């Protein structure tokens, strides 16, 4: 075959290749692209949770203590920084000794874990139980006494006298100084309240609510009848006077704090309520009392 013929054949082959490539390219350009699955964005991780601020109804900053002395005569120790909660007892005792006679403190007040005891007791008073092991004050000396027998057992007037040392110390303490000390130490009270299981609640709100609860204790005039608890079986109570209950179901259903006031006697309860009203008045900006 002559050389020109080879050139013709090669040109035809290249032409066929070019035409085939053109048609293939045209089909690819006209065909819609294959659908792709939608891209799913991974959700952004949530921001780290931050503790909610306590809802405050009665800010301690608005308390209006009424000191009996001018500010210049107040002890300089009030300006000192607060210690850790675990080491706060010496400061609390030293400060209280300027308000309450030191001799009374030794007789009436527990000297360890004072702030934690106050917080736990305040929180427990509106409940059915307020364990004495958590009280900031020592149990009242003497034995709970009653009068009568059988179905006519009542609280004895002699029982009321057991509370006299506590009541005298309470009434002698200047309310303005107590409120000022409480405001000064308030960060420690709030810390103890958070430890108790209330990190998002405000302890002073609880204080005001508990005061109102105690002030709502009914004033019962006349002897209050009590009964020993029902014990099934041959075992006798070694100290039945510890377990006496109110015969009136409505009184027995009251909270631990209200039953303490009822057991103290009407006259003693009135003295405690007067002090509570004074404390509440100075702790709240409005000064409103129930």
What report would you give on this structure?
- The relative contact order is 0.14.
- The chain has a two-stranded antiparallel ribbon. A two-stranded antiparallel sheet has the order 3-4.
- The chain is built from twelve helices and four strands, in the order ααααββαααααββααα.
- By secondary structure, the protein is mainly alpha-helical.
- The protein is globular, with a radius of gyration of 39 Å.
- The protein has a domain at 84-229 and 239-283.
Observed structural traits:
45% helix, 12 helices, mainly alpha, two-stranded antiparallel sheet, disordered C terminus, disordered N terminus, two-stranded antiparallel ribbon, 290 residues, 4 strands
Put the structure in a nutshell.
It contains 12 helices and 4 strands.
Proportion of beta-strand residues: under 5%
Strand order of the largest sheet: 1-2
Percentage of helical residues?
40-55%
First-to-last CA distance: 126 Å
Query: Tell me, what's the shape?
Result: globular
- Count the beta strands: 4
User: How many alpha or pi helices?
Assistant: 12
Rounded mean pLDDT is 78
| Overall SS class | mainly alpha
Low-confidence stretches: 1-33, 70-78, 286-290
Record the SSE blueprint.
Blueprint: H1 3-30, H2 89-96, H3 102-108, H4 114-124, E1 146-147, E2 154-155, H5 157-160, H6 164-172, H7 175-184, H8 186-195, H9 203-215, E3 226-227, E4 245-246, H10 249-252, H11 256-264, H12 266-283
Antiparallel strand pairs: 1-2, 3-4
Helix pairs in contact: 4-8, 6-12, 7-12, 9-12, 11-12
């Amino acid at each position: 075959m002559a050389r020109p013929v080879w050139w013709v054949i090669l040109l035809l082959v290249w032409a066929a290749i070019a035409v085939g490539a053109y048609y293939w390219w045209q089909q690819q350009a006209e065909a819609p692209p294959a659908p792709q699955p939608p891209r799913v964005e991974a959700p952004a991780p949530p921001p780290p949770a931050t503790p909610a601020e306590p809802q405050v109804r009665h800010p301690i900053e608005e308390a209006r203590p009424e000191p009996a002395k001018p500010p210049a005569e107040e002890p300089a120790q009030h300006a000192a920084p607060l210690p850790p909660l675990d080491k706060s007892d010496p400061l609390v005792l030293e400060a209280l000794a300027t308000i309450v006679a030191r001799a009374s403190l030794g007789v009436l007040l527990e000297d360890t874990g004072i702030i934690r005891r106050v917080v736990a007791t305040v929180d427990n008073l509106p409940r059915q139980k307020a364990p004495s092991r958590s009280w900031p004050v020592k149990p009242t000396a003497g034995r709970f006494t009653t009068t009568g027998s059988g179905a006519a057992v009542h609280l004895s007037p002699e029982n009321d006298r057991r509370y006299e040392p506590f009541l005298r110390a309470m009434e002698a303490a200047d309310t303005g100084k107590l409120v000022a000390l409480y405001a000064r130490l308030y960060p420690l009270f709030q810390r103890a309240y958070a430890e108790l299981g209330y990190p998002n609640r405000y302890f002073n709100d609880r204080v005001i609510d508990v005061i109102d609860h105690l002030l709502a204790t009914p004033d019962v005039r006349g002897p209050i009848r009590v009964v020993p608890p029902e014990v099934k079986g041959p075992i006798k109570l070694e100290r039945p006077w510890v377990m006496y209950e109110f015969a009136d179901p409505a009184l027995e259903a009251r909270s631990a704090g209200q039953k303490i006031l009822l057991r103290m006697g009407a006259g003693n309860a009135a003295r405690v309520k007067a002090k509570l009203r004074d404390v509440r008045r100075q702790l709240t900006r409005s000064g409103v009392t129930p």
